[in-house]
Amino acid sequence: MVRPELITYIQEQQAHQISREKITADLVTGGGWNEEDIREAFSALESPGEQDRLAPQTNPYWDARIPKANKSSMLTSLFLFFGLDLYILIIAPDLFPYWLAMLAVMLIFGAFYYYENHVLAHAFRYSESRWDSWLHTLVTQRNATFVLSLIPLIQILGMLVMLVLGIPYLIAYTLMVRARYRALVSVADTESDQSTLPRSHD
After folding, report:
1. pLDDT for 122-144, tens place per residue?
2. Cβ pair 176, 138 in contact under 8 A
3. Cα separation values, 71 from 44, 66, 165, Å
4. Count of beta carbons in the 10 Å neighbourhood of residue 104
């Protein structure tokens, strides 16, 4: 029978992209496990029914909340930019400088969208941190500001908020993302330390 602590350790190591060979070597040399137990644990994890049951828990902020908030805000922004704002530009070509400013906003939003939905979501999906709820709040506020900056007549308010609060926002956002990465690295360092290896009871 496969021991649960062995399964948990292997899942944690695989979540950090540690190779099967390194996991096996660490368990044999540092944990006193025999290779047959380790092979059984990997087999249990690789069988289709067990994969779903034993899958590591995902972080709801990075697996769903932040990507969904970004996606809905991006869809709204695209509708406003290519629908309403483009229509206004066609009927009033003298507003072209404002449309260019909105294009810049869309490009910046696209960069945040890619970074959070692809880079950060991939890095943070299987870990948790106290910074996740704060980052979610910052992302939600930023997305609202981006959408506001694309709505005619309100866009002046949205752009003013970006100009006044943009630098403080970027500083807070950068510091929180760095703290989140440091928390991830410290967890990975602790988990790969020999002292955290599950010990064989044989």
Report:
1. 888 888 889 999 999 999 999 99
2. yes
3. 36, 9, 23
4. 11
